[in-house]
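seq as requested:
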Amino acid sequence: MNADYRNWVPRGLIVTLTALTVLSVFFFLLSLLWTAPLMLTICLFVLFVVSALYLAWSVNAYRAFSYDGTKRIAGRIISGIADYIKITNGSSVLDVGCGSGALAIAVAKRNPGSFVTGLDRWGKEYASFSMDLCRRNAVAEEVSNVSFVQGDARRLPFPDESFDAVTSNYVYHNIPQKDRHTLLLETLRVLKKGGVFAIHDIMTESKYGDISAFAGRLRDMGYSEVRVIDTTDGVFLGKKEAMVLMLSGSKLLYGRK
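struct tokens:
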């Protein structure tokens, strides 16, 4: 039995874009044959071009993010983040937005004396991800020091200072909330004093505001170490890869409380 971490690009998106591309080119050709109004023909052509380009990007991204493909970008990122979580035996870890369980399981494998909790809402946006899938993947990886719970990253169902480490990967930019600094503070709320955190996301100014200023705010709050690491300069992936896959601005907020 092999683990199935699925893909960050949903298959349903590719199916939908394929259907849209086929239908748009079909109706565009019909408009030419039937001498439809010029504006309608132009609109159908634009729809075809846009859907075809988006389809091409989606297929390329699906291949790049595949855990079994040659590029293995998703696997490289997960492995890179997990390497930052170095904790002692008996420690507890929270992975926020665990999806298919990949990062939670990777951290658990690297820290067999710890216990990892993966939390996710498992919404319809990523319908192929589920708690049951996470559990099956843990069994496939022969990892027993991990469990999974349903919850909301905006209001974590844990008391303050519950975990020795917290981590997350490409989660918060998907949450429709303007102030993502508040989301980060909610995650760090459950981190114990002295605990380590590694939060990876697309931390552009439009999504996060000034992340460097936020790091400074954490230092002012007494955090002993805070770093903002650009992960598109060869740390996890290259700048060209990040640009093509719309991951430009990916950064790791790392430190210790």
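The chain has a mean pLDDT of 95.
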